[in-house]
Structures are given as structure tokens and as C-alpha cells.
Amino acid sequence: MGERCAGWFLQRRGAAVLERNIRVTDGEIDLLVELDGLRIAVEVKTIVGAGDPLGRIDAHKRDVVYRSAAALDGRIDRVDAIGVELFDDHVAIRWVPSL
Predict the structure, then answer these.
(1) Does 80 have pLDDT greater than 80?
(2) Upper half-sphere CA count for residue 14 (Cβ side, 13 Å)
(3) CATH code where residue 27 lies
(4) Nearest CA to 95 among 85, 37, 36?
């Protein structure tokens, strides 16, 4: 659910979602998008209720995400993160370009 919300959020800002859940040797890229001519690998963290989903991305997870992005064929210009908080009546999204 969080990845769908993040994809929609980025599309509303002009991004094209190229692929979802790309498995590579070192891990997975949640979303691959293109925005303003840049190919961006996006890590999505989702929680139910209030909190800080982006706080779950520690140094080790950042390293895994960067290695996964490097393993993709083709050019990756940037790695971003999106935190998604799911509530009963709404969704809160925070986007951090250049993780």
C-alpha cells in the first residue's frame, strides 16, 4: 500500500514510474522513476499510524539501497526516500530527495 501511495505521490509531481519492486543481487529497489530527466531509485518505508518511517532507514539500509541502485543496468542519477504513514482516514507522505 505504501509503495502505491508513494508512486501516486511522485506521479502527481510529474514523475513517471518506470518499474516497481526491482530485485537485484544485493536487495530490492522499491520504485524506479524518471523526473525532470533524472532516473531515480526510491526507497519507500511505510508505517501504520503516527511515527517516523524514514527513521527506519539507518546507515546499513542506506548502504544496501545504494548497492542495489548501483547493481541496476543503466544510469541511476539519484537515490531518494519516501516515508508513508497510513492512518484510518488519511495518508501522510514525506519525500527526501538525495537520500
Answers:
(1) yes
(2) 4
(3) 3.40.1350.10
(4) 85
The domain tally of the chain equals: 1
Contact 72, 32 (CB under 8 A): yes
Across all residues in the chain, what is the average pLDDT? 95
Strand order in the sheet with 16-24: 16-24, 27-35, 38-48, 78-86, 91-96
Q: Which domain holds residue 66?
A: 2-96
Residue 54 is classified by DSSP as G
What was the pLDDT predicted at 60? 94
pLDDT at site 75: 85
Segments in 21-80 forming alpha helices (H): 59-71
